[in-house]
Design a protein that fits this description.
This protein is α/β, with parallel strands linked by helices and about 140 residues long. The protein has one domain (about 1-135): Vaccinia Virus protein VP39 (Rossmann fold, 3-Layer(aba) Sandwich). Helix content is about 20%, strand content about 25%. It is built from 3 helices and 8 strands; from the N terminus they run H-E-H-E-E-E-H-E-E-E-E. The chain has an 8-stranded mixed sheet, with helices on both faces. The longest helix has 11 residues, at about 80-90. The chain is globular, with a radius of gyration of 14 Å. The protein starts with a helix and ends with a strand.
Length: about 140
């Protein structure tokens, strides 16, 4: 997860974790680095970080107003399409850290600390969809 945390903290000041569940390590690490994190889930659980109820299938767009990027850690594969649609509607980047072996169609970013996929829907979107190595 260190590669993901480093990537997010270097590029964005405000992010939203969609479907945070009980795994809050990324959100906490980002907050420690000064990144503002909004967390959403359909089943908010108090884990030391505020979590707001939202359903990615029918998202409340106002919750994400200040986010520069969305990210999801190990989302079920069926949630990737609505995550992409939400990011596209908000014109922000989407970063997906899938379970090992679950393919995504985004731009692969890899490093010593792991891998994830990026979908550049933000205003600084890159046309280049080539793999990026952070080492």
């Amino acid at each position: 997860m260190d590669t993901l945390i480093d990537y997010l903290s270097r590029r964005y000041r405000q992010v939203a974790e969609v479907g945070i569940g009980a795994y809050t390590r990324v959100a906490h690490a980002l907050q420690e680095q000064g990144v503002v994190v909004v967390a959403t889930d359909v089943n908010p659980q108090p884990q030391g970080i505020p979590v707001v109820w939202d359903d990615v299938w029918q998202p409340r767009l106002d919750l994400y107003g200040s986010a520069q990027a969305l990210y999801a850690v190990r989302p079920p594969p069926e949630l990737v399409p609505p995550l992409k649609e939400l990011a596209l509607r908000l014109a922000v980047d989407l970063i997906v850290k899938p379970l090992a072996g679950e393919p995504c169609d985004g731009r692969l970013v890899s490093g010593t600390g792991g891998f994830f996929y990026v979908y550049n829907f933000g205003t600084t979107a890159q046309e280049d969809n080539q793999e990026e190595c952070l080492d």
